[in-house]
Amino acid sequence: MNEGYGREIATIAEEKEELCNIPNITYRKNGEIKRNKMKKTKPIVQDTIPDRKIDTCKNKDRVYLLSSTGCSNFCDYCACVKDGYHLRKKESLTEEINGLNPKSLIFCDDSHITKTSIKMLDYVYKTCDVKDVRKECLIDPFFLSNNYSEVSDFIQRNSYRDLFIGVESSTYSGRDKIGRRYHGTIRDESCHKRETDGIKKFIKQFDGGLTLSYITPHPLIEKKELISDFTEMFEFLKIFRADDDRAHFINWDVLIPFPGTRVRQRYYNYIRPDERFDWESYKPSFPFLWQGNEPMLNLKSSFKSPENCLRIHSSWEICSSITLFVCTRLPDFKSQCIGRTCVNAHAA
Fold first, then answer.
1. How far is CA 300 from CA 48, 54, 273, 308, in A?
2. Rounded Cα distance, 267 and 276, in Å
3. Does the pTM of the predicted model rise above 0.90?
């Protein structure tokens, strides 16, 4: 996908177009890798007010509002490149909010917050008197490390309850981006340390639900990255307080690279995506992750109470994927560590 909006996937699912006619995709046909032409598409979120068929004041239905789509990041795994970023005009957003029940609103942005979006959202929240509203947003580690005070003040004055940090941009892949300009700043040798320090500081100070997300290439491609990310993840886990009853999560996704990315070619060199592989084939590559017959992680030294545990879910989606889902507090479980495997087959 060229911009990460799902337009191409939706077209494929409808089965109204042949694969050769769909732009921005890379696929395999009869053993041959084919890459279609790249074509810029418009963002799905436009500055038009949707015709909602619900009465939020009467039914108290939830309404998710997007102020922006696309991405301001530069990771190699997805293809929502920076030129796909789109910020709505503040006038259209305030017009949409008027007439809706404030208690039904949930601000959930698809893109990382930027200086421009901070100014726009501050204006909207103040103009529409948006206070007791559930707010969620993405934070990029690089942006956070260079604008920590500004981000922290923005989160506090607008009472954000849930934050999502895309850690993958600061990890092993991010270290390869030394010298690249990002948000007007050049990445230097100490950039990665500043990013992780910023995340650790934010974990300690943020009074709300926090989700840290890792997305890495397939483990057969980047073993070094998988190991380095695991090591970093444990450092973050140690910061969460054992007596904290807030919802803190670490999502770990090991996915196939998106079509159109440079990592995709290396993926094809190792794996045939038109064939399914048994989950058992992953175990020999990473024996330190499992004990016995079940995928079990012994994290006793990393956790501070028996209520803290880590769950593993492996899912089989298009081609193949592994998802490790980490929760730092699950009161219903009393063991120090729980491992679980779930395999679901989906049609490719």
1. 52, 49, 37, 9
2. 14
3. no
